[in-house]
Amino acid sequence: MRLALLLISAAAVTAPLAASAQYGGRMLDPRLVAEAQREHAGLVQEYGGAETGQRAAYVDSVGRRVAAYSGIANPGSAYRFTLLNSAVENALSVGGGYIYVTRQLMTLMNDESELAFSLAHEVAHVAAGHAISRQQVAQRPSIGTILGSILGGIVGGGFGSSIAQMSQRNDQLRLLSFSRDQEFQADTLGMRYMIAAGYDPAGAPNVLTALSRNSALQARIQGRDNRELPEWASTHPDSANRAMRSVQEARASGRLGSGVTNRTTFLQSLDGAYVDDDPEQGIIDGRSFTHPDLRMQFSVPVGYLMQNGTDAVTITGSAGKAQFGGGGYTGTLDTYIYRVLQELGGSQRIALPPPQRTVINGLEAAYATTRANASNGPVDVSVVAYQWAPGTVYHFVMITAAGSGMGPFASMISSLRKITQAEASAIRPRVMDVVTVGPRDTVQSLADRMAYRDFKLDRFLTLNALAPNARLAPGQKVKVVVYGVRRRS
To answer: Where is the signal peptide (predicted)?
Structure first.
């Protein structure tokens, strides 16, 4: 994972509450703009890449429409809107004017006014100067930070250095959470921008309610699903309270129920969109991670959660944390592990035990465990490297309590295997299917088509913002998640 998220100094700037498109106004800080430009490619790579085509162009057009009322000079060039190919529901922004929204968040929306508010809210964070000091990063250590600090110096920028970057940036992402007052201010400003742009302010409470309902559903699903939400998925907490507040503001505006919604256009833009994981990045299904293109699979221990990224999978549980990744490597397994262990301690000297050799599911493998002194005490750090093919190595790096070694992850280590072509071909993406309700369709009959093993009705109701006793009318458009055909890049 190569995320390089920009964090900026807080600025006490209040955005003007524009009533018409602003082509004057203040300029964004050139330093922040330059930083955002430098970090954009890394952030996009971290979050699954940027979508292109009509859907991305649509997001850009809506973003520019609301940004015109933010009071920032030259809004057409000051802001940049990116649709991320991510399975996490979120939108985020950095101070240099770069706004990001995920395709997964879009799947929870039901019309353009909801998209307009989500983008306007992020525009407002930029226009109001909401930001967090870099110095706070050091005040929030995590086990991921410990893992990254231990593994950060691997020679040649190997897997360990990518762990270090990811761990540090995950901590930075955690700090993207704005204060309650900043969230409320961004909601207020965002609603004013969208109203000025001609949208129905109902989009604000509607999308916040959708997020709240989805969070409640995910909490019910948790325990059957081994997916861990990354830190950046929680940058906008307390959606329920924000939804109630936004209803009051929408009513006070006198515009509730009037203005643009463009429901049909919005739903058409969603038709065919991926939902959940992109198979090109691997699929989390229960306790298993399967990558059809690499033809590999492994399973995590009971009770452990996974977080799928572009270049690595992070595994977290009560007894330790691990990451899986790899790629091209021309040396031997022993040499690789020696190089890793030589850098584990940084300036401290640690023992370098000889790697042990074994065979796991027909794969040549080597492993070693060493002791390192982390900031909160000694820990065991283990590396298991697998010779996947000539010139290709995949590996787990694990951190556990001192004395635990690889024990907590023994079942995971032994589960890595090559899958057959038939198994790989059987993996299909979930996609959004926008359907027209027929005379015989019911909520239950459409929910039965959802491409999930459980909670089909609950997922369908949440996806379409429907009440449990809702009745559908013929001709109505609704969203159904079905199995589709993979896109080939």
So the answer is: 1-21
Neighbouring-strand partners of residue 260? 199
- Token readout for 485 is 């055909």
Give the three-state DSSP class for 387: strand
What distance in Å separates the CA atoms of residue 335 and residue 450, rounded to the nearest whole number? 48
Question: What is the C-alpha to C-alpha distance for residues 416 and 396, in angstroms, rounded to an integer?
Answer: 10
Q: How does strand 296-299 pair with strand 305-308?
A: unpaired
**Least confidently predicted of 43-47, 154-158, 209-213, 326-330:** 154-158
Q: Where in the chain is the domain with CATH 3.40.1000.10?
A: 283-425
Give per-residue pLDDT as tens, 265-314: 999 999 999 999 999 999 998 899 999 999 999 999 998 988 887 778 88
Could you tell me whether strands 274-275 and 363-374 are parallel, antiparallel, or unpaired per DSSP bridges?
A: unpaired
User: What DSSP character marks residue 10?
Assistant: -
- Distance, CA of 182 to CA of 187 (rounded, Å): 8
Q: Which helix (H) or strand (E) holds 252?
A: helix 239-252
54-67 and 263-270 helices, crossing angle to 10°? 140
CATH 3.10.350 residue ranges of the chain are 428-483
Please tell me the CATH superfamily of domain 283-425, with its number: Mog1/PsbP, alpha/beta/alpha sandwich (3.40.1000.10)
| Residue with the two structure tokens 């040649």 | 156
Which run of H or of E encompasses 478?
strand 477-483
Contact indicator for 107, 463 with CB cutoff of 8 Å: yes
Extract the tokens encoding 201.
């302010």
Q: Cα(110)–Cα(112) distance, rounded to whole angstroms?
A: 7
Helices (H), 253-318: 263-270
CB neighbours (10 Å) of residue 43? 24
Going by C-alpha positions, the residue among 141, 151, 47 that lies closest to residue 102 is 47
CA–CA distance, 400 with 406 (Å, rounded to integer): 7
Is 428-483 CATH 3.10.350? yes
Take residue 398 and report the two structure tokens written for it.
């694990």
pTM of the model: 0.82
Closest CA to 159 of 43, 1, 44, 331: 1
Distance separating alpha carbons of residues 158 and 38, to the nearest angstrom: 22
Distance CA 78, CA 96 (A): 8
Contacts of 285 (CB under 8 A, 6+ apart): none
